[in-house]
Amino acid sequence: MSMARDSLGVSRASVIIPSLEETAALSVSAVSWAAVLAGGIAAIGTTIILLELGAGLGFASVSAWSGVGARAATVGLVGGLWLIFAQWISAAIGGYLAGRLRTKWTGLHTNEVFFRDTAHGFLSWCAATVVTVIVIALVAGSAVRAGSNVAGGAAQGATQGAAIAAGTSAGQNSSDNSMYFTDMLFRPAPTTSGAASTAPATPAPAATDLTATPPSAQTAMAGTASGSAQNAGPANAAARGEISRVMTRDLAKGDLTPDDRTYIAQTVAARTGMSQADAEKRVDQVVAQVKDAENQARQAAEKARKTAATVSITTALAMLVGAFIASIAGALGGRLRDEI
Questions:
Q1: What 3 state SS string does the chain have?
Q2: What is the model's pLDDT at position 164?
């Protein structure tokens, strides 16, 4: 609306009515979804081709034989770089097609045309990324479900096998078989059978008078002879379970308490026929192995954490660069469209 004066000088309002072409142009969206979807589909197709090519090259560079082919670290590094390369190439192709296939507009400023072409390239990258993530999520979900079914069947079979084993072991607690470090404590004391076999044989007495043997020697002989017998049965299962609980509680705080260390050594000595000093040495050795295993597990978890953080940050940066490449490619495609 504008103000105008007639011949008598009286102000009057005049209304400017837009033309039909301007009205149609205002009612049309600035986004050409057909071009966006075309660029996204092209980006997805290019990604699939490049990934298949990379997988083929990767399988060709490795070998099942030791010392043959590329190392695992090298394959992993090159594979990551190839994924970034594939993402950038597909983003460039999809953005270029989205900008080039968009309908040419007339009567717009050059800056507005540049913005719209850039937006179309970016939208094509977004469409391709969203579709790819959805497909990967569906495939991963199917793989997880299949793995769960396999694991469930294996667990059921293992449970049935454990039940059968428990029924034929005279009440032996099957869970104690997995306590590796506790089993190490109760292993029988090492014998000198090899040295004894090389010594000249001597005639054994017809009978042994235990009444002439000192009580301390009788105790040692009884402990050595019955070491393996004491390591079987429900009593031994209860002792192993108790020792395992004590070690789990103490080692979670850092180390065995002096009282628990002495008690464990006494239990080991009583059930293996070892001396108290040897039993204490065994306890210290086993505790050291437990701590070493825990440190190795922590180191592996820390390495996995650092690797996951590096992969996530690198992937995010690569995707940002891919979005930028798609936007620039869209602007380039739109410029060539207008020039031609």
A1: CEEEECCCCCEEEECCCCCHHHHHHHHCCCCCHHHHHHHHHHHHHHHHHHHHHHHHHHHHHCCCCCCCCCCHHHHHHHHHHHHHHHHHHHHHHHHHHHHHHCCCCCCCCHHHHHHHHHHHHHHHHHHHHHHHHHHHHHHHHHHHHHHHHHHHHHHHHHHHHHHHHHHCCCCCCHHHHHCHHHHHHCCCCCCCHHHHHHCCCCCCCCCCCHHHCCHHHHHHHHHHHCHHHHCCCHHHHHHHHHHHHHHHHHHHCCCCCHHHHHHHHHHHHHHHCCCHHHHHHHHHHHHHHHHHHHHHHHHHHHHHHHHHHHHHHHHHHHHHHHHHHHHHHHHHHHHHHHHC
A2: 38
